[in-house]
Amino acid sequence: GEDCMHMFPSGEWNDKPCSFQGYGVCEIPVLNHVGCTPAGPIDNSVAAGLSCEDGWYALNERCYLLDATLREQEPAREACTSAGSAGHPSTLASVRSYDEHYELSRL
CA-CA distances (angstroms) from residue 43 to 39, 47, 58, 103? Predict the structure, then answer.
């Protein structure tokens, strides 16, 4: 079945088979991030004083990392787990609101 999601460059979502290869987005709560540096380019997060490690973007108390490697869902999940800090693994992103979807589509 089509149990996984894919976001088009337009920001629209589509369900896909989990064997589909796409670019992943990893997330980790800001509060769990250690050794943070100034946040990425999302204005509302910078204004709120959130910060993430280099290469990660802050949004709504979470840090996001764009994975530039095409992967199926399970390898993408494993790559996200490896990308997190020691003791604080990241996960594949879950979009919780329209505003979050809009901001992530701008990355």
Answer: 9, 6, 9, 10
pTM of the predicted model, to two decimals?
0.70
Contact of 56 with 65, CB cutoff 8 Å: yes
- Specify the DSSP class assigned to residue 98: H
| Cα–Cα distance for residue pair 57/5, rounded to 1 Å | 21
Q: Which residues pair with 6 in a beta bridge?
A: 14
| 33 SS3 class | coil
Measured distance CA(9)–CA(55) in Å, rounded = 20
CB atoms within 10 A of CB 21: 14
- Compute CA distances 65 → 1, 3, 27, 92, whole Å: 27, 22, 6, 9
* Residue 37 DSSP code: E
Q: What is the pLDDT of residues 8-30, one digit of tens each?
A: 777 777 888 888 888 888 998 77
With beta carbons less than 8 A apart as the criterion, state whether 15 and 4 touch.
yes
